[in-house]
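tokens incoming
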């Protein structure tokens, strides 16, 4: 017999029951559902809707049910539809009619809104911890490579020399912003919707603030319609997760390129690589590729829930049952990707010699040569033109900028002097870029310190 079945004359069709049921996935909310029910029962006891003895019986039984679920001693029923009805059914079977009083002044609509907020709050905390671990690993690797020279790119063409440390700090900044987005999401979701009822609250004199405080919320939602129909907090999390996955994907793309035979900048650890079933020589960066591929899943989760919500009138609609699978998938994908991403970075080997060699090719010091002329009083646009012609000359003759003589340079401009050769040395090109945020090792060292402070401030 359905706990809501009084109005119906026939049972639900078996096909519909299976289609309608959410227990196959929302069983994951059992802890949050029981936490919310315990707080609700305690509040009902306080306001006199339940006798104090009844409230204690319910609270004790719910605690035992929680222990039994954790121990794997309970099997959920599809016929009970969802985690809420399953818990209530088990409770009633154990303590009888008193269990039927728990749902007083509550709807599954505000119940599931509460459960999902509790779940996401916990998972955001876990995701922040994993992000922080990844950031700390990036900072550690960056500290070890303040003077590991490498080429920087635009359009995937060699552009200017910099350091691996500076390169990795770009990703540190991305992930710190991701931390901030998760922190902001957590702040906005941390309001209790319980007491909103189905959509219009309840006639019982609930102490919503008591429940909110017991469950660790900062306050309560202020509109019952919004309380049950809002999923902005889930969308915000999915958006933050999608952006974080995009950043992970970009970093993984770097590692895929850098570990290739064409680059050879890094060697991926055997524990984070796989082989080929046919080609015995292969060592594939499959972990990085899989993180890159899984990014699309989280994008899909975000788009799916946005699409579900876009045309829904107030208040609750069954469409919203689709929110949980999307949230669960994004949580799992993000956290697993962060976990393997940190290990992959921590264990990779950096080939400093190959990186430095790569930084020397491709005329990466051409901009510095143009700046040299500008400092000699040549208008930058003219200097740009002169250096462009020099690069063309070198390209035609298979030379680098370091290979020309001073006399050859002076054929292009009389502003060149012997000191130009010191200006276009690889290390000097990097060390001279001392602007805040630039790649000079001393500036990168300061940026690492500032990033550590920023990280701890976000986590505080």
């Amino acid at each position: 017999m359905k706990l809501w079945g009084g109005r119906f004359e026939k049972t639900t069709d078996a096909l519909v029951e299976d289609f309608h049921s959410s227990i196959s996935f929302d069983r994951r909310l059992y802890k949050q559902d029981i936490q919310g029910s315990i707080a609700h029962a305690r509040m009902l006891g306080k306001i006199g809707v339940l006798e104090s003895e009844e409230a204690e019986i319910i609270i004790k039984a719910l605690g035992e049910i929680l222990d039994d679920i954790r121990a794997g001693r309970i099997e959920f029923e599809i016929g009970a539809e969802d985690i809420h009805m399953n818990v209530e059914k088990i409770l009633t079977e154990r303590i009888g009619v008193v269990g039927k009083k728990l749902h007083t002044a509550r709807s599954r609509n505000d119940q599931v809104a509460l459960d999902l907020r509790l779940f996401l709050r916990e998972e955001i905390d876990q995701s922040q911890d994993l992000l922080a671990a990844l950031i700390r690993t990036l900072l550690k690797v960056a500290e070890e490579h303040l003077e590991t020279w490498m080429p920087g790119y635009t359009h995937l063409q060699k552009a200017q020399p910099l350091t691996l440390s500076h390169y990795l700090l770009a990703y540190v900044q991305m992930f710190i912003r991701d931390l901030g987005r998760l922190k902001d999401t957590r702040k906005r979701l941390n309001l209790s919707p319980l007491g909103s009822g189905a959509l219009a609250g309840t006639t019982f004199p609930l102490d919503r603030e008591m429940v909110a405080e017991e469950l660790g919320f900062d306050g309560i939602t202020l509109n019952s319609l919004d309380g049950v129909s809002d999923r902005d907090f889930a969308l915000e999390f999915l958006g933050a997760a999608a952006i974080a996955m995009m950043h992970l994907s970009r970093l993984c793309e770097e590692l895929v390129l850098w570990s290739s035979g064409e680059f050879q900048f890094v060697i991926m650890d055997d524990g984070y690589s796989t082989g080929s079933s046919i080609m015995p020589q292969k060592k594939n960066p499959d972990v990085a590729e899989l993180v890159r591929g899984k990014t699309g899943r989280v994008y899909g989760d975000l788009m799916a829930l946005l699409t579900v919500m876009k045309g829904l009138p107030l208040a609750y609609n069954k469409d919203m049952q689709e929110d949980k699978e999307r949230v669960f998938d994004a949580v799992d994908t993000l956290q697993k990707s962060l976990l393997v991403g940190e290990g992959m970075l921590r264990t990779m080997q950096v080939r400093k010699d190959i990186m430095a060699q790569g930084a020397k090719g491709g005329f990466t010091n051409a901009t510095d040569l143009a700046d040299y002329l500008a400092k000699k009083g040549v208008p930058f646009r003219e200097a740009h033109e002169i250096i462009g012609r020099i690069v063309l000359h070198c390209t035609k003759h298979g030379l680098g900028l370091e290979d020309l003589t001073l006399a050859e340079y002076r054929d292009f401009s009389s502003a060149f002097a012997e000191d130009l050769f010191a200006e276009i040395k690889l290390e000097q090109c990097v060390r001279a870029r001392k602007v805040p945020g630039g790649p000079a090792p001393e500036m990168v060292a300061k940026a690492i310190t500032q990033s550590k402070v920023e990280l701890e401030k976000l986590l505080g």
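note: The chain has three domains: 12-104, 109-142+161-357, 366-424.
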